[in-house]
Design brief:
The protein is built from 41 helices and 35 strands. The N terminus and C terminus are likely disordered. Strand 23 and strand 24 form a beta hairpin. Helices cover 43% and strands 16% of the residues. Helix 2 crosses helix 4 and helix 30 packs antiparallel against helix 35. The protein is α+β, with helices and mostly antiparallel strands and 1239 residues long.
Length: 1239
């Protein structure tokens, strides 16, 4: 398998290791990054203006709330009303309050066309000349619909109120009137000085002033921002650290901060502090961001710079979008179609009435009403009368029924015990009730990596020492075991009890102290690192810059080589119970180019040795020709890679005193180099990191969440494509891609430079072809980018993404034009920045990416994540789902059609912005393949039947109009029209929408192909809509004309002809109720007692209410409202009318039964086939559950993947070598004298 990799040093493209700009990148940053680019030609008449630094417009005065209320910091809100530009610290996510709920909610509900339509109907029904139905037939359903929706909205908003209240009422110490007082988060203001303690959440974006640690060092956990649990360090300025420790000193602090405007950049901050007539530069390392948590720091003090909506975590939230499902959109278009049909039918019947009245009605003396209205005017009134009569074609209860079904489906998700994570007591949570059926139509999933696919936990699994491989289950003698037996660490008092290892032979070698290579191996791991240790209540705790460093040092600790402490120039460890201190002569830290780190130590006996660990690709280049075990170690590395473990090589070199002295002089010169210091240091490091002797290799598992590979495989079988969007490095992202089976060995992997080359080639080809071939809006079928049957994958960095999509070039060009005082010129078709050219480039990229089975975008910003989702939504018209766990995923979660947050972690920002939340990625397959599929099938079946039953009900009026002179008279009793959708036919179809399932959950998971109809939208579309329409037309014909024929020439048992209008209305209504309830019975796949009760109960309710409202007693009380006195009892005592009802119902259902039989026999779907063999498949599932899985996951990959590129930033080497984390500078300040060092 060939894999092309770009050499980042020689490539002309962007640096793969650098996080690209965000939308809020400042102009001066863009100016710096655009050096070396060709400037556009300038006109002589417009000389270039002098470039001035951008104005810094955000000013913060410490301990001075009045300063921020000055007129110069006010902004206009409305007309002459102004408010401060500085946001308060309270957050608000709710929509209503007590005063605005009723008007605002009604306004939102009447934005629905259907509600406005029914309100207009209600107004029409009040007008006597056109009122063909009583006003209450519309008012009662409309009030019920509005009321239920309002109650649901109120419940949702109360939950948001509670969440906002919980956050805003958190407590924090704020310096007020010279003393620290406990205050609520919502009362904090910009410029306040706050005190935070260990494990406190940070309430705002704060400038760190001082802390309890040396040199105001402060450790923070950023799980809320990015899902990572390894600690980051922040550090205050030396001046504030030394002068702002006591309460009195902080109260007198009056610095002025000038900094950048609020923006969404999590990786950059630029500012300046003016204090005591001196200016001090500020950067991101000095800022504590809202949402992070204080760790391993007893207390710290800070100054609030950004509050509330201005904080970076809130700015990264993106715009809250109103999400609607595809079915919602389709349903609205269908309602518009029904409106059009309604108007056309009403107009046709009105014209019919005009001609009828002209020919017959005006000549019939018994129809004379004395109104003197013209024929045309009567036709006009008839039109509005039929609009009222036929209004039930647009079902008023449709929307409220849909809301009830969605609410029920959301509750089923919440109650699903198989999506409950017991370890953290976290159930699944549907945070919205409007998107459930969309879960059954997902085509693309966009996933974060850290905390979403992985646990961000590194575990030392295996190793190779002096050519011998360790890590498989063995006895102390080296015999392989069938059963895993963990090592007992009771012999080591420093051992971490959570550390698991199963190879007893390695432990026996260490304890015997006979294997010198093994001892040297773990000594290296305990010495060569940048981890810092602290004693927490007698327990040794390590703080590592990245989790892999912590895993390696913990492994050494358990094998008897315990890192205890360090100073600026010493490292102390315990070697098998003997404490040893080594003098540190040099610490050569890791960076993304070196991919290795080294430490130079002076042993107690005077020897000088260099220990080095790094990626195998860079270590093997620097090995001595005399080194041993190269081939065996390489074989072990390949085997580790096959098991998706991340590898690292360990080596050493003995250095003479004279060689070290010569190198040390060069090192000191490089350290004080003012020009390109990092490059100078790298050159010096290269001189000593050579002729290394190989000791062995480590294999670390970046622990995936349980079930991730299986989930990805299942979703891929359901034809769902998964893209990983992460801020991690390319190597790390690629490793995880293989670990979770997203990437496989049979895939051809394409990188950024390859993608750019193919897109440029396609672009050139397009430009060379006639312009008529590529007109905007004209889609031409494109050739595949990857011809052949090979499987392809795409790995692209954020820098290449900007390069490919012209994002940064376009912004730089706008900046140059603005500085030149020019306006942007109209688009030139040959200009690469042309809008159409850019759009075609985006389409090309999306087409290429969608041809790949897997796509990984790494080193991308939160904004880029959202942009990638938007591109797929825009150009593929696909249903998308985003899943993440940190604040950097919020924008992506809000942009996708469905947003899923991983809950149960420390960071809950993603969950608060999500539509669905659960604790583990593996629950995604159940959410989509079970709940999503069921919800989609249920909703489609519900809508098809709902439209059918309303067409069948309403169109009886249409046929009746031909026999009533098109007079807008109704075919049923008024109360039947009112209660038909509310009581007589609503419950069975509602329960189908809530409970129906064609297959159980286990079979739905076993056959992911069952998910395809949802993606293709085959169960509900315009074809299904018109089938429902013609089905309704057929049933309405049968329901009207069979009773009509039966009533033409009949004679009752008493010798009278019961062919009156009221008896006819009773028979047609009864036939309709039987037909629709039995029809839904035929379509029900999953029968329960409730379903059976609903069908029989609806029929029973119909007869019970009908006999009541046709009784004489109620007619006496309300004679004008209940006019069908005795009609039901009179008609239904005639046997031939019951025979008429049976014949009508039988003829209505018989064709449907025949069609369903033929369809399932001759053209069965995948679901029909599975259903037919359901018993067999269920037995297979039971047998599979009984079998124990013994086979491991295997791969045959020949290439190795290094683990040593984890950390986003260099480690703690700078802190260690400068001593900033070890001891405090000696100052005359009394407040520091009594403070103990950290170690």
């Amino acid at each position: 398998m060939s894999r092309r990799r770009a050499d980042s040093e020689s490539s002309l493209g962007p640096n793969d290791e650098v996080m690209p700009y965000s939308d809020d990148e400042t102009d001066d940053e863009l100016d710096e990054t655009s050096d070396g680019e060709a400037e556009e030609p300038q006109e002589p008449a417009h000389p270039r203006e002098e470039t001035r630094p951008p104005e810094i417009g955000w000013k913060v005065k410490a301990n001075d709330r009045a300063y921020h209320q000055l007129p110069e910091f006010k902004k206009k809100v409305f007309l002459c009303i102004k408010k401060s530009r500085y946001s308060g610290n309270a957050i608000k996510t709710y929509k209503y309050n007590a005063l605005t709920f009723l008007p605002l909610n009604l306004y939102e509900q009447f934005k629905r066309v259907a509600n406005i339509y029914f309100l207009a109907l209600l107004i029409l029904q009040v007008i006597p000349d056109i009122a063909t139905l009583p006003w209450y037939t519309t008012l009662i359903p409309l009030v019920i619909v509005l009321g239920i929706t309002a109650i649901k909205d109120l419940v949702d908003d109360l939950a948001r109120h509670r969440m906002d209240k919980e956050v805003n009422n958190r407590k924090c110490e704020v310096l007020l009137d010279g003393r620290f007082k406990e205050s609520k988060w919502m009362d904090i203001q910009v410029g306040d000085v706050v005190r935070l303690k260990k494990n406190d959440f940070i309430p705002a974006d704060i400038l760190l002033l001082s802390s309890s640690n040396p040199n105001s060092l402060c450790y923070v956990e950023t799980a809320e921002l990015d899902g990572e649990t390894n600690l980051k360090f922040k550090m205050g300025l030396r001046q504030t650290d030394e002068g702002l420790q006591e309460e009195q000193e902080l109260a007198q602090f009056n610095a002025l901060i000038e900094c950048e405007e609020p923006n969404n950049r999590l990786d950059k901050f630029t500012g300046m502090m003016l204090w005591k007539s001196e200016r001090y530069p500020l950067e991101l390392d000095n800022i504590l961001l809202r949402g992070c948590k204080i760790r391993n720091t007893d207390y710290c003090h800070g100054l609030v710079i950004f509050a509330g909506a201005d904080t970076k975590i809130m700015r990264n939230g993106g715009k809250t979008r109103f999400k609607r499902t595809k079915i919602d959109e389709l349903m609205n278009y269908m309602v518009y179609t029904i409106f059009v049909l309604l108007v056309l039918v009403s107009a046709g019947l009105a014209i019919g009435h005009t001609f009828w009245y002209e020919d017959i009605g005006s000549k019939a003396w018994y129809l004379f009403d004395g109104k003197g209205q013209t024929t045309s005017y009567r036709g006009f009134l008839s039109f509005w009368g039929y609009i009222i009569v036929l209004n039930t074609m647009v079902p008023i209860s449709l929307y409220v029924s849909v809301e009830v079904i969605r609410l029920g489906q959301s509750k089923f998700i919440n109650w699903d015990l198989q999506m409950y994570y017991s370890e953290k007591d976290t159930p699944a949570k549907a945070r919205t009730t409007t998107l459930n059926e969309q879960l059954g139509q997902i085509q693309y999933i966009f996933s974060d990596k850290t905390g979403t696919l992985t646990q961000n936990i590194m575990q030392f699994k295996k190793c190779s020492i002096a050519g011998r491989r360790y890590g498989d289950p063995t006895t102390a003698e080296g015999t392989l075991l069938d059963k895993i037996k963990p090592v007992d660490w009771s012999w080591n008092r420093y051992a971490d009890k959570k550390f698991d290892f199963v190879d007893h032979s390695l432990v026996a070698n260490i304890q015997s102290k006979k294997d010198k290579d093994a001892l040297e191996f773990f000594k290296l791991l305990s010495l060569c690192h940048t981890v810092m240790a602290e004693n927490n209540n007698g327990e040794l705790v390590y703080q590592a810059a990245s989790p892999d460093e912590g895993a390696l040092v913990t492994a050494a600790r358990n094998f008897g080589f315990v890192f205890l402490s360090r100073t600026q120039d010493t490292v102390t460890i315990s070697e098998m119970g003997h404490e040893m201190t080594y003098e540190m002569l040099g610490l050569l830290d890791f960076n993304s180019d070196r991919k290795r780190m080294s430490i130079i130590l002076k042993f107690p006996d005077g020897r000088i040795r260099l220990y080095c660990k790094g990626a195998d690709t860079v270590i093997y280049e620097r090995l001595s020709p005399n080194t041993r075990h190269k081939e065996t170690t390489q074989t072990a590395l390949d085997e580790f890679a096959n098991e998706t473990l991340r590898t690292l090589c360990l080596c050493y070199k003995d250095i003479s005193a004279s060689d070290f002295e010569a190198w040390s002089r060069k090192h000191k010169e490089a350290q004080v180099n003012m020009v390109d210091r990092d490059a100078a240091l790298d050159i010096v490091y290269e001189e000593i990191e050579n002729n290394l002797m190989l000791i062995g290799a480590t294999a670390i598992e970046d622990k995936l969440q349980d079930g991730v590979p299986e989930t990805i495989a299942k979703l891929a079988m359901a034809d769902i494509k998964i893209w990983v969007l992460t801020g991690d490095k390319k190597e790390t992202a690629e490793n995880i891609g293989f670990s979770c089976t997203l990437l496989r060995d049979d895939m051809q992997i394409h990188y950024g430079e390859d993608v750019n080359e193919k897109l440029m080639s396609r672009q050139s080809k397009r430009r060379n072809e006639p312009s008529s071939m590529f007109r905007p809006g004209k889609k031409k079928p494109s050739e595949p980018y990857f011809p052949g049957s090979n499987k392809n994958a795409l790995i692209i960095t954020g820098g290449w993404l900007n390069e490919i999509l012209y994002e940064k070039k376009k912004k730089r060009r706008k900046l140059r034009l603005r500085r030149l005082g020019k306006r942007q010129t109209p688009s030139n078709p040959q200009d690469p920045m042309n809008d159409w050219e850019k759009e075609m480039r985006q389409i090309d990229f999306v087409d290429m990416a969608c041809e790949c089975e897997a796509v990984i975008c790494c080193r991308v910003t939160p904004k880029q994540k959202a942009n990638v989702v938007s591109l797929v939504k825009k150009y593929k018209k696909a249903v998308t789902l985003s899943i993440g766990d940190g604040a950097n995923d919020v924008n992506m979660i809000k942009t996708a059609d469905i947003g899923v947050g991983i809950s149960g972690q420390e960071g809950m920002q993603a969950v608060m912005s999500s539509d669905y939340a659960f604790a583990q990625f593996r629950y995604l397959q159940r959410l989509l393949l079970v709940h999503g599929r069921w919800s989609y099938i249920r909703m489609c079946k519900f809508l098809r039947f709902f439209f059918f039953k309303n067409f069948a009900f309403t169109l009886v009026h249409f046929w009746y109009s031909f026999f009533s002179g098109f007079s807008s008279q109704v075919a049923y009793e008024d109360w039947f029209i009112t209660l038909y959708n509310l009581a007589y036919s609503s419950l069975p179809v509602l329960l189908v929408g809530l409970l129906d399932q064609d297959l159980n959950d286990r079979l739905s998971l076993k056959f992911p192909k069952l998910y395809l109809p949802g993606q293709q939208g085959t169960l509900f579309n315009y074809k299904n809509f018109f089938i429902s329409l013609f089905h309704g037309i057929f049933v309405s014909l049968v329901i009207f004309f069979i009773p009509y024929g039966a009533f033409l020439q009949t004679m009752g048992q008493d010798g009278e002809a019961p062919s009156d209008y009221q008896s006819f209305a009773v028979v047609t209504a009864s036939s309709l109720v039987f037909t629709v309830n039995l029809q839904i019975s035929l379509d029900t796949s999953y029968w329960t007692f409730v379903s059976c009760f609903a069908v029989l109960g609806s029929i029973a309710i119909y007869f019970g209410i009908m006999f009541d409202i046709h009784s004489a007693g109620i007619h006496v009380i309300f004679p004008s409202v209940f006019t069908f006195t005795g009609a039901a009892s009179n008609a239904l005592r005639q046997p031939y009318l019951w025979l008429t009802i049976i014949l009508t119902v039988g003829l209505s259902l018989l064709p449907i039964v025949c069609i369903q039989f033929l369809h399932k026999t001759i053209w069965p779907s995948v679901g029909d086939k599975v259903q037919r063999n359901r018993r067999k498949y269920e037995m297979q599932l039971e047998e599979e559950e009984k079998k124990k899985k013994t086979s491991g996951f295997q791969r045959n990959r020949a290439s190795r993947r290094s683990a040593y590129a984890f950390s986003h930033t260099p480690g703690y080497a700078n802190l260690i070598s400068t001593g900033q984390s070890i001891r405090r500078r000696q100052t005359a300040h009394g407040g520091n004298a009594g403070r103990r060092p950290a170690l």
